[in-house]
Amino acid sequence: MSLSPRISERLITLYLPLFMTMVFILFPFYWTMNTALKPEGDILQTPLAYIPNHLTIDNFINAWNNVGFSKFFKNSLFLALCTVLSVVTCATLVGYSLSRYRFKGKRVFMMLLLCTQFVPGAMLIIPLFIIFKNLGLISNPLSLILVYTTFQIPFNSILMNGFITSVPKQLEEAAMVDGCSRLQAIYHVVLPLLLPGIVATGVFTFIYAWNEFLFAFMFMNKHANFTLSIGLSYMMGEFNINYGALAAGSVIALIPAIAMFAYVQRYLVNGLGGAVKG
């Protein structure tokens, strides 16, 4: 049975490109999981097995217990959560100020916030390293929290400005007429309506802090303070690589991000919609 010209055109121009893109994106994830579930002796066998002949979770146990991923996981989670808390708090306050108040130099200030995103992070490594060394913060998680927060506040403040602008000002005014102070109006009226925006900002910040490598690699010199990204890099030695444990560690690092996106995706879509409206 031949397909109609319209169905054939849609198949070629829509479904086929989407399918090829999906395969291109998902295949590395599949191969990582495939490698993580293979015994060490089967990983480099030829020809390559696209489906494991013998499934095993020994690589996950080795990565979690022997390599130290349990500690790396806790370190990354602590850094990411602290960064999210500080960035969401600061970005919400800055975004509210930009949205609700008029002051001289407002546009210049917003432009400067955006211009900070053009500065390469690598350019600031040496001065930041010297500052943190003089403060005694090398190998201290506080150094990474400060860096991550500083780099994330400008962009997220602009995002929160868009979210807050989409909340009608009349709702706050009505709450203040009923006896609320401005802070009470923000807490009881604005913040509940900002939930999608707060979640979106928190997710972007969490993913950045969770995946960041450059600053963590430079500032964390003690093995006990390594993050997941540093732990993965140290598994690639000069003469040998433990492919099974490396793949298992990559899967472990992916789980929180995937779980978070799966849980908050509806808030994320609504939040981005609010930012576009703003």
UniProtKB/TrEMBL annotation:
Keywords: Cell membrane, Membrane, Sugar transport, Transmembrane, Transmembrane helix, Transport. Residues 73-264 form the ABC transmembrane type-1 domain. The keyword Cell inner membrane does not apply. It is a multi-pass membrane protein. Coiled coil: none annotated. One of its GO terms (biological process) is transmembrane transport. PROSITE patterns: ABC_TM1 (PS50928). The keyword Zinc-finger does not apply. This is Multiple sugar transport system permease protein. It comes from Anaerospora hongkongensis.
